[in-house]
Amino acid sequence: MAATVRVVLRMTLGEPWRRLSDEEKKRLMDRLYEVHQGWKEDPGIRFLCYYGNAGGGYDGFAHHWIFEVDDASKVLEMKRPIGLGKVGPLEKFSFEIVWGNTEIDDFWVS
Predict the structure, then answer these.
(1) The pTM is what?
(2) Where are the beta strands (DSSP E) in 3-108?
(3) Please, where are the H alpha helices in the chain?
(4) CA–CA separation, 75 and 2 (whole Å)
(5) Roughly what angle, to the nearest 10 degrees, separates helices 73-83 and 22-41?
């Protein structure tokens, strides 16, 4: 039986982003939204939250999306378009499978 897991997509745009023209930046964001739209339409992928961190940290500013997926194999599907460069030039990205804690979830729901 497949287990529900949480996954964090962490992305930094960095120097590649700063070198793009305004038109290229718009195209990159349009492609990113297309990828996200596909995830949104997939019943096996559920968006939980987004946050960004300040630019003064270890790696500078980064975007973080947290999803819940039906099983870990879904993470490979999510990674494919970004890993194949279909979004555009990114400084770095990673998908991290993280664990949940049902006791903590239950506390916040109650």
Answers:
(1) 0.80
(2) 5-12, 45-53, 62-69, 92-98
(3) 14-19, 22-41, 73-83, 102-109
(4) 13
(5) 160
* 75-77-80-82 Cα dihedral, nearest 10 degrees: -60
User: Could you read off the pLDDT tens digit of each residue along the chain, which spans 110 residues?
Assistant: 456 888 999 888 888 888 899 999 999 899 999 999 999 999 999 999 999 887 665 666 788 999 999 888 888 899 888 877 778 778 888 888 876 667 777 888 88
What phi, psi does 24 have (nearest 5°)? -65, -40
Q: Which residue has the tokens 């739209």?
A: 37
The structure tokens listed for 59 are 């790696």
Name the residue among 28, 89, 23, 91 with its Cα closest to residue 60.
91
